[in-house]
Write a structure and sequence with these properties.
By secondary structure, the protein is α+β, with helices and mostly antiparallel strands. It has 2 helices and 4 strands; from the N terminus they run αβββαβ.
């Protein structure tokens, strides 16, 4: 198939929502626990679709004292699909400019 033109925005929003979910949603309901998980979690990021999650975790949460004990496991399922996008779209990702060089994989 082909990529949608706004995939970088779609998956950016997915990553940001994944970081909010444990803090606000009742994801576990049983007699011993009911309510949000809180901030003591492990995020599993799979492929490029969720590659922004660690960046958002560092820039939007850990820098403000949130998710201090949270961890991320990043799994690459298929290296052939890397989700490369134009740098002109970087400003739409809601990341600090300091992160921009982390996404430059082209030499020269």
């Amino acid at each position: 198939g082909t990529d949608y033109e706004d995939n970088q925005l779609r998956f950016s929003m997915l990553c940001q929502a994944a970081l909010e979910a444990p803090r606000i949603l009742n994801l576990n309901s049983c007699e011993y626990f009911s309510g949000p998980y809180g901030e003591d979690v492990v995020f599993i990021a799979n492929d490029w679709h969720t590659a922004l999650l660690p960046c958002y975790l560092k820039s939007m949460y850990k820098s403000k004292g949130m998710y201090e004990t949270a961890k991320v496991v990043y799994c690459i399922h298929n290296i052939a699909y890397q989700g490369r996008f134009s740098f002109s779209d970087f400003s739409l990702l809601n990341l600090p400019d300091a992160f921009r060089s982390s996404f430059d994989f082209i030499d020269g």
